[in-house]
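hiii so um. not sure if this is the right channel but i have a protein structure encoded as tokens and i wanna go backwards to a sequence. like what aa goes where. can anyone help
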């Protein structure tokens, strides 16, 4: 059931939010079980340089944002990285993503970060437009390599 038109509330996620976090990560394209989500939340909660925010409307989870802080050797300062940002499809286009983004930016500033970055898949053109509309500019090309056996 889609949440109604109530006010959006943003709060830190808790272990008990694992079912909602699992569903939201699935919406983002990174499926995990409730138990896996609980383990991931526990890892974030145990690390003071990470945050996981949950957006709710009328008590129903409708989005999340995750970020971490790290020192940048090349910039000589703290910087923040958004590692996940998703709004459930039934709650899209209500300003929830922008609200989550503003809250993450505020946390980054309060933590002393001079810069915030985010990466998104080349195929997610709607996400590219969203970030540009929110004042983010294109940056470097991102490369990744899996380190499995």
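sure thing!! here u go:
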């Amino acid at each position: 059931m889609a949440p109604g038109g109530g006010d959006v509330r943003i709060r830190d996620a808790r272990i008990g939010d694992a079912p909602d976090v699992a569903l939201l990560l699935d919406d983002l394209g990174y499926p995990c079980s409730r138990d896996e989500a609980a383990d991931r939340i526990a890892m974030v909660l145990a690390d003071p340089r990470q945050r996981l925010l949950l957006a709710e409307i009328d008590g129903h989870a409708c989005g999340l944002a995750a970020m971490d802080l790290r020192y940048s050797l090349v910039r000589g300062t703290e910087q923040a990285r958004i590692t996940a940002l998703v709004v459930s499809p039934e709650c899209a286009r209500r300003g929830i993503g922008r609200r989550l983004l503003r809250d993450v930016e505020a946390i980054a500033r309060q933590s002393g970060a001079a810069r915030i970055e985010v990466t998104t898949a080349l195929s997610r053109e709607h996400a590219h437009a969203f970030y540009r509309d929110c004042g983010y500019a294109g940056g470097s090309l991102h490369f990744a390599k899996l380190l499995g056996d």
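oh and The beta strands are 8-12, 50-57, 60-72, 77-87, 115-118.
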